[in-house]
Amino acid sequence: MIANDKTKLKLTACFCLGFLCLFSQDDVLVPSEKPKVVYKVWAEIYHGDTIASIWMPEILILADYSYKTKKQYEAWSRTKYNVKKVYPYAIIAAAKLKEYDLILSKLPTERAKKAYVKIIEKELKADFESDLKNLSMTQGKILLKLIERETGSTSFDIVKHMRGSFQAFMWQSVARIFGSNMKTEYDPEGEDIMIERAIQLIESGKF
After folding, report:
1. Which of 48, 123, 129, 140 is the most buried (most CB within 10 A)?
2. Which domain holds residue 160?
3. What is the pLDDT of residues 75-121, one digit of tens each?
């Protein structure tokens, strides 16, 4: 019994010595401290406490539009196609309207503004008349809605702003003959929900 205890004691001593020798060697890799990572964030005071505030980009999770019948599927497919065709024109219209408004605000007289509006008309006709003439009636109606979506103003309001009430009334009358309405407002949560869903798919690169 005593011999066994002595043997155990010797083995324990050898193990400890070996362990100490191992970690006394110069080439032993000793874990170093982890590098400190510093994040700079905004701070907000909430109910007397200072809380870190981190901005994160919006994550949009989309699913295909829900349809139950073949007719609904066909309507959704047509809407996606038509929106994809006219959406770029709505983006251009919004950008150009901001540009034109900025220039018009700096012109000193009404005469100068009217002269500039005529220049605008010639420029737009030269750049887009042939393309817009090839749009279908449905695509034209969607474009009117998308212009309101991108600019915050209906086509009627834009023409009224640029050309006056009489011109806006005349163009609205023409639009009515072809079944359109320049006063159309965009309703993304109602009748235009499919259009809005198609735009989201386009902007996310999924269509």
Report:
1. 140
2. 70-203
3. 889 999 999 999 999 999 899 888 988 998 899 998 998 898 889 88
Q: Is residue 15 part of a domain?
A: no
Dist. CA 133–CA 151, nearest whole Å: 22
Contact in structure between 63 and 207 (CB atoms under 8 Å): no
Q: What is the pLDDT of residue 124?
A: 85
Say how many residues make up the chain.
Answer: 207
In a domain, 44, yes or no: no
- Strands (E) located in 38-153: 42-46, 49-53
Nearest to 96 by CA among 147, 140, 146, 163: 147
Residue 158: inside a domain:
yes
The domain total for the chain is 1
Task: Report the distance separating Cα 30 and Cα 23, nearest Å.
Answer: 8
Of the CA atoms within 13 Å of residue 181, those in its CB half-sphere come to 4
Residue 2 lies in a domain: no
Mean pLDDT across the chain, nearest whole number? 78
DSSP assigned state of 3 = H
Nearest to 131 by CA among 86, 97, 91, 93: 86
What is the 8-class DSSP label of residue 30? P
Residue 155 · residue 147 · CB < 8 Å:
yes
Q: How many Cβ atoms sit within 10 Å of the Cβ of residue 100? A: 19
- Residue of 34, 17, 12, 151 whose CA lies nearest to 92: 151
| The token pair that represents 119 in the structure block | 């220049």
